[in-house]
Amino acid sequence: MPSARFETKNRTVCDFGYSYHSMLEGDFSFFEIPAELTDAIHQACEALELEIPVDYFNSVILAAYPKDGRLGAHIDNNEKNRWSRGGKLPFYFDEHIVGVVVNSNKNTRFFVTKNEQEDHLYLPEEDGLCFSLQGEARHIYKHGVRDGKRGACL
């Protein structure tokens, strides 16, 4: 099944649905989201007690992190007026982010922080871990993936 694929020194990413990375380059292709991924997302929503419609998600990101891989601290940009090399983006991604850890790397942690010195929370990644981000957790607090040497476990 085709997807948008990106590799960096910190991770390998396969995007299904609309690809944020591709859209920034002006490519607005839609890559069909496999039924297995859709099912996993809906099971995660049920586990998190989120009432989200079946057709809500228009993007799925699969990310594989090597031993020391990471996703740098960032704030999600959800501006409707965001521009790419191909012009104005036709829409923005919806508010809810749902994450599911499928094959954990015991050295990595998902984190949320307001500054670079102190994590406000981190989640040790374990197979089956589900989490959801929305509102301030996406747009005010920085979040990402890194080694688990800082912060306090919830």
Describe the structure.
The protein has 154 residues and is α+β, with helices and mostly antiparallel strands. 14% of the residues lie in helices and 34% in strands. The protein has a single domain (4-147), classed as Jelly Rolls, CATH 2.60.120.590. The protein contains three helices and twelve strands; from the N terminus they run ββαβαββββββββαβ. Strands 1, 2, 3 and 4 form a four-stranded antiparallel beta sheet that branches. A four-stranded antiparallel beta sheet has the order 5-12-9-10. The chain starts with a strand and ends in a 7-residue tail after the last strand.
Question: How is this fold's topology laid out?
Answer:
Blueprint: E1 4-7, E2 12-18, H1 20-24, E3 30-31, H2 35-47, E4 59-64, E5 71-74, E6 83-84, E7 87-88, E8 97-100, E9 108-113, E10 119-124, E11 130-133, H3 136-139, E12 142-147
Antiparallel strand pairs: 1-2, 2-3, 2-4, 5-12, 6-7, 8-11, 9-10, 9-12
Spell out the key features of this protein.
alpha+beta; Jelly Rolls; 4-stranded antiparallel sheet; 14% helix; globular; disordered C terminus
